[in-house]
Design goal:
This protein is 29% helix and 25% strand. By secondary structure, it is α/β, with parallel strands linked by helices.
């Protein structure tokens, strides 16, 4: 049966591009609607991204936070109203109402939901990606896990203390929720998990440094919760550098500027260099390139991050059958029609947009008018480490904001994330793994494939450091010395770009 043939589809066809939070919710909301659904995704799995850092830091195996799309939607597939295709959409032809996937296959749609998500953003410095991988996919998580664990192994092999230090220095760029969670977890690994497993090195001497260009961590949180998160990071052994503007990333570390008083007392930029062989990028996101393809086809407007500017009902101008949801959408909430507010790039927003798009499709099929999207913000959560987290909850029914931190916030974060995991098995696995890690401080997912096979041209151990020995930087008293920028090929990988803290998960 040809997907391009309208005669084979007597029911209206709804094509959903992407099976992240928004796409999956849309597919489930249309479960009993009189439509034919086609779900298209680049991978075969739905990923619970808020816990992706746990895979990157060996806390959870990949299947605990990822489920096969076909299994999740198996009941709809069995009913015969949903088809799942694995492929990448290469273009959208709005004039003829069809999309093209890799291989040249054309798929007609009556209604289109674009939920292609976001990728990394390095703010024009995509060359940093191979030195500082971001965290958006399982592949990214495996790359980071491999590099973190390999760094300790290389430190064990290195006999020169000066050359060993960069291997034991872990830098995270961006202090949004992802960066904070990564920093706290890496500090726990160094301080607890690995402390008795090496003979030549003391893992507790490892440094975990979180760099943020703004003046504080967790910029979307209230000031007191931001300060509490910084304190908890310090208690775990992580160092925080705020006001640090990254200027370059190489195979050997990070160049950054801070504003410091000059001879005349006026602030001026001072350059620093932090030697580190392991850098993680958590500083910026950019919309999927599919947004540009959609704009080319429909002339819809994009914002500075490449997101599609949508109308109140989540459609694009002059195309009432095309919806954009999730991280790809620059959307506003119309809880107050006279004062719409921007929807944050978080998973609850994507879920609610997916459900609203499906709801509006059903209304249009019934000859009714579509409704404006209203986002219900229930607050923000961020975990810092074991027994450490911050929580800000907005309770709409009593119009009250509740803020708390520490162990109680960590417990709340734990149960919220377990609750929203897809499938009973995943919830059970995660609870068992977390219980084991809590009582033993061990992480059993500490295996990775042969790095020679995965990155044959990027063995960092073979990279020769710069002739000018780098100066170690203290988080408390950063050095103003910046060695010559090294240009070298080092740990190759996939990645993205950076800057501002990533949106809350």
């Amino acid at each position: 049966m040809s997907h391009a043939s309208r005669s084979s589809a007597p029911k209206p066809r709804v094509v959903i591009i992407g099976c992240g939070f928004g796409g999956l919710e849309a597919a489930k909301a249309l479960s009993h609607a009189p439509v034919e659904i086609v779900v298209i995704d680049r991978t075969n799995h739905h990923l619970f991204q808020p816990l992706l850092y746990q895979v990157a830091t060996a806390g959870l195996p990949a299947p605990a936070i990822a489920g096969p799309i076909r299994h999740i939607l198996r009941k709809q597939i069995a009913r015969g109203n949903l088809t799942v295709l694995m492929g990448e959409v290469t273009s959208i032809d709005a004039a003829s109402s069809c999309i093209v996937i890799d291989g040249g296959e054309h798929i007609h749609y009556d209604h289109l939901i674009v939920a292609a998500g976001a990728t990394h953003s390095y703010f024009g410095r995509d060359d940093w990606a191979k030195y500082a991988p971001g965290l958006k996919t399982l592949g990214d998580a495996f790359t980071i896990r491999r590099r973190v664990l390999t760094a300790f192994e290389q430190a064990e092999r290195e006999t020169d203390p000066a050359k060993r230090e960069p291997w034991l220095t872990f830098a995270i760029v961006g202090a949004g929720p992802t960066g904070v969670e990564m920093a706290g977890t890496l500090a726990e690994i160094a301080q607890q998990t690995l402390r008795s497993e090496f003979r030549r090195i003391d893992s507790r001497r490892a440094r975990v440094i979180l760099l943020e260009g703004a003046g504080r961590v967790l910029g979307t949180f209230p000031d007191d919760m931001s300060q509490r998160a910084k304190e908890q990071l310090g208690e775990l052994g992580a160092e925080v550098l705020t006001g640090a503007k990254v200027t370059n990333i190489t195979a050997f570390g990070i160049h950054y500027d801070t504003m410091e008083p000059g001879p005349d007392g006026t602030p001026q930029p001072v350059s620093h260099f932090l030697p580190s062989r392991t850098v993680v990028w958590a500083a910026g996101v950019a919309a999927s390139p599919l947004g540009r393809a959609l704009s080319k086809s429909t002339r819809c407007q994009l914002d500075r991050a490449g997101r599609v500017v949508v109308q109140p009902d989540l459609t694009i101008p002059d195309h009432s059958n095309i919806y954009v949801v999730g991280d790809l959408a620059s959307a506003k909430s119309y809880l107050d029609p006279d004062n719409p507010t921007m929807v944050p790039g978080v998973s609850p927003g994507a879920k609610q947009m997916g459900r609203k798009a499906a709801f509006n499709i059903m209304r249009r099929l019934q000859g009714k008018e579509a409704q404006a999207f209203r986002y219900f913000d229930y607050g923000n959560l961020a975990t810092i480490g074991k027994r450490a987290a911050v929580a800000v909850l907005d309770l709409p029914f009593i119009n009250k904001r509740v803020k708390f931190s520490g162990f109680s916030a960590w417990l709340f974060w734990l149960f919220v994330h377990v609750y929203f995991l897809i499938g009973f098995r995943n919830r059970t696995v995660v609870l068992m793994d977390w219980a084991w890690a809590y009582f033993t401080s061990q992480r059993h997912a500490r295996v990775f494939p042969d790095p020679h096979a995965l990155e044959p041209n990027a063995m960092v151990v073979r990279v020769t450091p710069p002739s000018t020995p780098p100066v170690s930087v203290s988080a408390a008293t950063p050095s103003a010395t910046a060695p010559n920028q090294a240009v070298a090929s080092a740990p190759g990988s996939n990645g993205a770009t950076g800057g501002q803290a990533a949106p809350a998960q």
